[in-house]
Amino acid sequence: MDLSVKLSRVDHTFSAGEKCAGRIIVKTRSRLAHSGLMLVAHGEVQPQLSARNAGIFGASQLNPTPILHTELPILDADVFEPGEYELPFEFPIEPIPGETLAETYHGVYVNVQYTVSVELKRSGMFVRSLAAQCPLVVHTPTEAKPDPEPNDFEILPESLKNVRAERLSAIPPFRVTGRLEQTNASLTTPFVGHITVEESTERIRSLELQLVRVETVRNEGREARERTEIQNLQVGEGDVARGMPVPLYAVLPRLFTAPTVHRSLFSIEFEVNVIVRFERHYLSTLNIPITLYRG
Q1: Do 2-139 and 151-293 agree at the fold level?
Q2: pLDDT in tens, 215-265
Q3: Helix, strand, or coil here: 156?
Q4: Closest Cα partner for 230 from 216, 215, 213?
Q5: Pick the CATH number of 2-139 from 3.40.140.20, 1.20.210.10, 2.60.120.280, 2.60.40.640
Q6: Sign of torsion, CA 157 158 164 170?
Q7: What Gene3D superfamilies does UniProt report for this protein, alphabetically (predicted)?
Q8: Beta bridge partners of 208
Q9: Where are the extended beta strands (E) located within 93-203?
Q10: pLDDT in tens, 46-78
């Protein structure tokens, strides 16, 4: 005997407010008595702490927060004769009252996950119930598309942070300019811009564009914030030509990015770092906060 659940879309992706459809497949070679077939769709936010932030909350527990829960009876108690059966189902993707759906997201300290599970209940001393589940990917489109808000930037020795004033004179002079075409960026379009090394007396080793997630977990008036890298793209290698614009082009990774969200118990934000690495093993980094949305 075999039990499985399949969604109507190959990528398992549905938007908030849509109806999720699929079918439950039951295969059995003998008569199969059961006490009912139940489908459960469940979604929750799962926060967790890094080792260095574990002490911030003391003995407080960070419990998952349910944001979607739907129970759908499929069959009452009955008997399956030998054969294969396909049972269709459909349910709306709607939040629990008082909650708001968040997009599926696989982070380091915050995860938003949805599943569709089915259970074929059986009774008896020597039999066990059958269960199966599959992931559900939920998208949360933005109703109003924000303005791109491009960002023109310039990196100079004087603009560096975390550098003592008396050490600035030891940094070889350089000037790097560039532009990000959008700081309000759609998840479905490439993140683009350009960077230009206008001048530098020091040889350059590489130019990089780094995408960073900023995850915040809150509980009982306290919060822990962590920054972690999502991806790092090398856009220039070696001592790049001066005065030549180097294009920036990044496709945002699916599941590891999501619309920027701020909630009472958690936040998911994003930043990009424009990094200039010099041959003498020091680097200059410009941090630019960005807002992601699903258009």
Answers
A1: yes
A2: 999 887 888 899 999 999 999 999 999 999 999 999 999 989 999 999 998
A3: coil
A4: 213
A5: 2.60.40.640
A6: positive
A7: 2.60.40.640
A8: 234, 275
A9: 105-106, 110-121, 130-139, 151-155, 174-180, 184-186, 191-200
A10: 998 777 666 666 545 688 999 999 999 999 999
Tokens representing residue 220 in the block: 């009982």
Two structure tokens written together for 10: 């190959």
User: Residue for token digits 């009252």?
Assistant: 97
CATH code assigned to 151-293: 2.60.40.640
For the chain, give every domain's residue range: 2-139, 151-293
**Cβ within 8 Å of residue 169, ≥6 positions away:** none
113-167: pLDDT as tens digits: 999 999 999 877 778 899 999 999 999 999 888 999 999 999 998 877 777 766 7
- The alpha carbon torsion through 218, 220, 222, 227 (nearest 10 deg) reads -10
Cβ-based neighbours of 115, under 8 Å, separated by 6 or more: 41, 42, 43, 133, 134, 135, 136
